[in-house]
Amino acid sequence: MAPKTPKWRDLADRFGEQIRNGEYEPGQQLPQIRELVEAGEGSKETVHRAYKALEAEGLVTMTRGHGTVVRPKSPLKRLGIARYDKAKWRDGDEVAFIADRVASGRTYSRNEQTQNVSRVKAPAAVAEAHGLPEGADVYARARLVKEGTQPTHTLTSYYRPEHVEGTRIVDPTPGPAGRGGGFRVLYDAGYEIDHMREELFARVPTAEEAQLLQLSPGEWVVELHRTTYTADGTVVEFAVGVHAASRFAWSYDFKVPDSAATEGESK
Amino acid sequence: MAPKTPKWRDLADRFGEQIRNGEYEPGQQLPQIRELVEAGEGSKETVHRAYKALEAEGLVTMTRGHGTVVRPKSPLKRLGIARYDKAKWRDGDEVAFIADRVASGRTYSRNEQTQNVSRVKAPAAVAEAHGLPEGADVYARARLVKEGTQPTHTLTSYYRPEHVEGTRIVDPTPGPAGRGGGFRVLYDAGYEIDHMREELFARVPTAEEAQLLQLSPGEWVVELHRTTYTADGTVVEFAVGVHAASRFAWSYDFKVPDSAATEGESK
DNA sequence: TAGTGGTCTAGACCACTTC
DNA sequence: AAGTGGTCTAGACCACTAA
Fold it and tell me: What value does the mean pLDDT of chain A take?
């Protein structure tokens, strides 16, 4: 009945415990692998595995030449539907993503968003959302949103050409799509957004995403599909966001539906 | 300028490619580790690491004595707010979680849910949601929901004693909380639910959760906090769900808020 | 009991970061 | 150049699963 848990697991748990206890503070360095080997904690591979496990759990960061360091726990950024408030982008000149930042007490500085507009053939999900045949032409506006130097998520909006041709959206300038952002541009073009659907699911990142978002090894992403409609049900924007899973929380408020009572509530 | 990507990564990518291409079908077995060692793909540790990477990516399952097998891709279960439709639990005798299953075309059989009711001291999050002091007494109704033999999520509801004492909820019988489920019981007790807030975020599972939900190594969970209110704003239920991240998608429909226009909408 | 994955070691050598 | 993590090997032995 000897211990059945692997040696590396025990080691990892010991340090994990100490980190959670605060015996190791964020920023502090763990013993070097070679030290622990000499201290008789196991072979280099064994200790390395333990450290890798901690890294996968998001507790530490390993860098060559620097050492293994306790990660600061980054606070969650909460995203509620209030970030789409019309008052923000219609009347002022805040953009939704800036409103997020204001709400969380961070300062805004321009160029925290890189933008790239192109005309592409609609991928399946995009075509379906817009009710177009697959491969139809759409405009794609891709952004990488950063908080300071740290990238937090990507967001790619897809528009039907007839909705945006000739607007500022099609002008590929870095930064928000001019005053008020994309919804303001649509509004000025006669498309007032009215309701939305957001769908979320978690998945493993692609290698490209892991690099772009600077994900720690083992970290998942949350993919968000946002479909935006006008009052008559026309889809004017379909957007896909990829978020580092550990850095966000989503919040939704809604009425409990009652299909027996509500007759004029629609869909 | 020799290859800088590790050997194990290359190996993993090769198989990953073939799995995605369908050259390996779900259920099919990959070459055994020892075979690949003999074929000169590297040492046992190296091949093992490659396989481990594939497992962490959710592509294969490794089991001793059985081999390394391509995982069937389980379809996402979509959760929309329609699952709370009052008509389902007030007029019929469906329960919300059963409605999910009906919606996704699966059959229902009893005892797919284990239930455990107890009176506990409110943890911080629960106390905050209910507006109680931390450590106040609440009823906790914990369920482990399964789909066939596969556990999919846990769900723990917390109630204030004065709302549920003397109702069927407090009776710790396995299975749904009687006809219509928990919301029906509250309804019968004079608390009609009106609106909800759901908050979601992803995180690394605890060791216990990993075992309980039979998560594959490296898989994350999504934690859901659901707060249910009556029309006057009283919180009648606060529930915490822990879901295997790869098996669920959430969907929310909402109106674009307009704080400048809507005066009587309230929060 | 045979089959197959899992852990561990000792030591060599590589690769990135900091000085 | 020195420091620190990352990869790789060959082989021994352990642990779980299925027949």
Answer: 86
A49-53, A177-181, A232-236, B210-214: the lowest-pLDDT one: A177-181
CB neighbourhood size of B137 (10 A): 11
Residue A134: predicted pLDDT? 92
For the residues B109-130, what does the mean pLDDT come to?
83
A111 touches chain B (CB under 8 A): no
| Whether the predicted pLDDT of B249 surpasses 80 | yes
CB neighbour class for A162 (10 Å; exposed up to 12, middle 13-18, buried from 19): exposed
- Residue B265: CB atoms within 10 A of its CB come to 10
Q: pTM for the whole thing?
A: 0.88
Searching chain B, which residue's CA lies closest to the CA of residue A193? B256
Q: What beta strand segments (E) does A122-192 contain?
A: 137-147, 150-159
Residue of A nearest to B80 (CA): A199
Domains in chain B (CATH in brackets) are: 7-70 (1.10.10.10), 76-251 (3.40.1410.10)
Contact A84, A100 (CB under 8 A): no
Q: Is A199 in contact with B53 (CB distance < 8 Å)?
A: no
